Structures are given as structure tokens and as C-alpha cells.
Amino acid sequence: MNVYRYKENPLVTPTDVPPHRDDFEVIGAFNAGITEYNGEIIMLLRVAERPIHHEKNVVKAPVYNHETNTLDIIELETSNPDYRFEDPRSIRKASDPDSYAYLTSLSYLRIARSKDGHEFTIDDEPFIYPQDPLEVFGIEDPRITKIDDIYYIYYSAASSYGVGEALVSTKDFKSIERHGMIFAPENKDVCIFPEKINGKYFAMHRPVPKGGGMPEIWLAESDNLLYWGNHKHLLGLREGMWDNARIGGGAVPIKTEKGWLALYHGASTDNRYCMGAVLLDLEDPTTVIARSDKPLIQPEADYEVEGFFGDVIFSCGAIVKGDVVQMFYGAADTSMACAELSLQEILDSLTAV
Fold it and tell me: What domains are defined for the chain?
């Protein structure tokens, strides 16, 4: 697979983004949803900010207060026996280390714009900021699906109830209409197909089972984009391969003559995130035609290997122009980068199922 990483990579870094609050610092600008609007590439960044503090034995957690429309800053001593602090991203409950009590940063969505996909300017203010009680820990990892003249933006919404998927829409990237949570916790990595198939909308999603089952990709259908049902298991983990620990949707599925091409992320048991692809039937997307045996792109560059959470390539959006796939991706949970791949080479690389 020929992969051309842009020489300007990383395209957007935390230092490029001014914090929304003076007493916060930006630690990540990554996992952006991608689309085109008014002749520009829109990069809808997940911006992660955390409170600035210098106390060695204190960890601070920002929590949006939807009643007062302000941020509350929770301060915890690292000696507190009720919590665990090993993970820099979250504060875990000592009684249940698989569940987090707080996040150490708050994520929101901000727009970056480009004419060529190489040089981006970043809006001064957030575009979508936590507002709902189900978003009090932040909003993350957006995707954007354009249907007719409406851009549907959906993202992971985090709160003490867990992480689910919320939906908003816009026509102008100035104002939004909120539609609420469309997939309840625990669920994320939703990718809505860009057109109806046999009269139905389809979406890939990734439940996170706490009992039986694994973090794998499912498919759901809807009449109106708001209420989803007829859920079917689509894609599973593969023992001994690059996607043997968890998988989830990446970019919005791409319609080709051979089928729907879905770029998805896979993580191995050592938490190495790569991007691969799966080909689904055009008329019945529950049917898997072919899949990547090897990653299309894997962490190799310094900015992909080293970062807030290293060895991560995580794409939430791509743009196709002829045979060129511009895959924009979050690198090491820190920055944004882009690589170009051949659409035909991706299709040729897949192995029939």
C-alpha cells in the first residue's frame, strides 16, 4: 500500500489552538470530523483542555454544570484511597477500576478551515460545547455525514451515565439544531451512511459490552436518523491480527462500484491503533464482501508514535477526489495529520470474506 503522508504533518497541534479559558491548557486537537462546505475543507476538531495546575499531589477534573452553564473544577488528592490515578486521561474508582469517576480534561468541538487540506486556520471560539446533562464530561470524536443540504454531526457524549452518541445538524456551520442522544451508553464510533439504501438510513456503531460480547462493529437502520433499530452484528475481532482487541467505525462510508468502502480503526492487545477497511454490499450493507488482512496505515512517524497516548492513528473523516483518498486522522491522541491513499489500491488490497 502506497501511503503519502503530508510533509506539513502534523497539520494541527495543541499549540495551534488557543484555549477557550485562560486558566486551561490545550493538550489535544485531534480525531476531527471532516467534510467540505463552501469550497473549504471543514475539520471539526476535538479539542481537549485541562485546568492548569502546579500542585504535584492534586489532580483536577473539569465537569460542565448544565444548571449554571459553568465549569466546576473537582480537585482530588492523589492519596485519596477512593480513586486511582494511573491513567492520565481519567480518574478511576478504586472499587471499580474499569469505570471512571471523572475525566482529567474536557473536550469540545472547534472548526478548522482549509482551501487545500494542507494549511488550516482555526476559529476563535468553540463550535459545539457541552450543554446537555449527558455531555458534562465532554464531547468527543465527531463524524459528519452530508445528506442533501444538511450536515449531520454526531459525537461521543460523556457523563457519569457513560458514553453514548449524540446528534446535531447544521446547514451553515454557524448554528446547530440538537436532536439528542441516538445511541445510549455504552456506545460510540457511529458512522452514518451518506444516502438511504432501499429506503432506509444505515449506521455503523460500536457497543461496549460489560458482560458477554466484545467491542465490535454493529449495523443499525432508521427511517428518520433519530430512532435506530434492527441492530445486527457486522464485524468482529480477529485473534492474532492487527484488530484483535477492539474495532470501531472511522470515516463515513464511501460509495464505490464494488460496494460501500468503510475505513475503520482497529486496536491490538498492546493498544496500537491502525486503520483498515471493509467492503460492504451496495444493496445490503449487512453483507461483508472483503476486509483488510493488514492495516492500510499504521503508526510509524514520530507524531503518530509519541504523544498523549502513543501508537495511535484514528480517522474520523476522509475526502475522496477521483482515485485519491485524503484520510485525515488523529495522531497519538494529540494532533491532526493527513495521508493520501489510492482508492483502487485500497480495494485491491482487501481479502474476500
Answer: 4-352 (2.115.10.20)
